[in-house]
Write a structure and sequence with these properties.
alpha+beta, four-stranded mixed sheet, 5 helices, 4 strands
């Protein structure tokens, strides 16, 4: 799990995604709509993608993507991100992680 954890800790917002995943696209669009510049790893196109997917599954991600790290913490997937947004907490979390400065 070192690869995913290390990559997730590199930037304020890190998203593990697949290029063909519509929910991944939705989450990436939502987060970027606030001005956050997320680092995105398309695991179906990345040379270490299979290892990333195994590690995400070992972290309890089913399906493995989208998986979102904010402020170096695994927030989880689309349900959790959408829940944070509906509760008005996503922007605060992005601010706390210094991903946006609004």
């Amino acid at each position: 799990m070192a690869l995913v954890s290390n990559l997730g800790a590199e930037k304020a917002v890190v998203i593990f995604s697949k290029s063909s995943c519509s929910m991944c696209h939705t989450i990436k669009t939502l987060i970027s709509s606030f001005g956050a510049n997320a680092t995105v790893y398309e695991i179906d196109e990345h040379p270490n993608g299979q290892q990333m997917e195994r590690e995400l599954k070992a972290l309890g991600r089913r399906p493995s993507v989208p998986a979102v790290f904010i402020g170096h913490e695994l927030i989880s997937g689309p349900n959790e991100i959408m829940s944070l947004q509906l509760k008005g907490k996503l922007v605060d979390l992005l601010k706390k992680a210094n991903a946006i400065w609004v």
